[in-house]
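Cross-check.
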Amino acid sequence: MAWRAPKTTALLVGAATLALASCGTAKSATTTARTASAPGITSTSILLGSDTALSGPSSLGNGSVLGGIKAALAYVNATGGAYGRQISVTTIDNQSQQPVAAAAAASLTSTIGAFGLIGDGPTSAASYLASAASSANTIQLFPTTYAWPGPSSSIFLNPTVEVEAAEIATALAKRYRSPQRVSLFVPPGTPTATAAAVSSKLPSRWRVNLVSFSPAAASDGFGPQALTIAASKTTILVSFAGIFSTASLLASLDASNAHPAVVVTQATLAVEKLRELYSNLTLKASYPSTILRFSPYLPATLLPKPWAAVVAKIAKHLPADESLDYATTTGIVIGMAAVEEIEAAGVNPDRRVVLTTADNAKVDLPSTGGYSRLGGLQGGVLYGNGTPVYVTAGKATTSPPGFKAPPRL
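Predicted model, tokenized:
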């Protein structure tokens, strides 16, 4: 298919196999009969499951992402399906709760019989969900939340914190030439490795301060963490927390009269939504610092022309109450990428082949480099004020990347 990553990366182990598997698209003629090749796959249909938070504190934006996923699949169905198969999604709301997310994963695969999971639970439930997917002997197609690496039976194509942290540091060093004091607001897991990844990409005169947190600490507004950040005289704050936690931290910083010059966030929703949530928490109009975003996906306003065209076509399939914004665009990308992986496994895919395909090759998404389960994030863009900085494999530039036209354009 046209949607292949450049062959310059060492991650393309087995790329020739993928290219052969993917050269027959849904529009191409094939002499192989479609069969019920795996759970959730019949000769005419593919059933996927979405285990995501549509209610509770982690639910912001998830409904829009899911709307984008469904719009992408509706577009694929309208243009011939995946090798003629129509794709549908059954959704269970995990209510932002870890046990519910694990039970939902088991139900979607064992009871309902979905081929795989698309999207995921909230960040705090991601490891639970990965374990449940492994126990159910199923796969995860492009989780919407990056997390700790999942077991081998899950396709965690989104980046680990450490990989994304290194890419953010590269972008910051490109944008800001003078020495800075950087505080990293990170969830539990491997915070020391996160700090090391950032330090390795910054000039030696910059200072990195690590502030770890747990989601449960949000109940006090992250007061102790805010005091630590204020005491370090932070000039750049990088938050790896979700939108609610980031907004809570900003509220506590404001109460301490601490305002880093720049706040970098990779929360799911747009910066405007972050400001809106902050306003709701503090009864104030805005946070005075410059807020930038580091995104592994290009926002709709920065999409290259071929992708902008196909996204506009897919947007016609969005629900009436959804508009084309960052969250829905993210869902569109995830949906199209999932179809790409399924089709690359051949006319009669099974979970093992899809997993192997995803492990051995990189998919060229509309980001600055795409994803691989082996390598995590291969690129992103820092934007929100001034010229965007694009990062690909540790190299930063202000020139946007080029992309081939996506499938079915």
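DSSP finds twelve helices and 14 strands in the chain. The two ends are 12 Å apart (CA to CA). Passed to J.P. for a second look.
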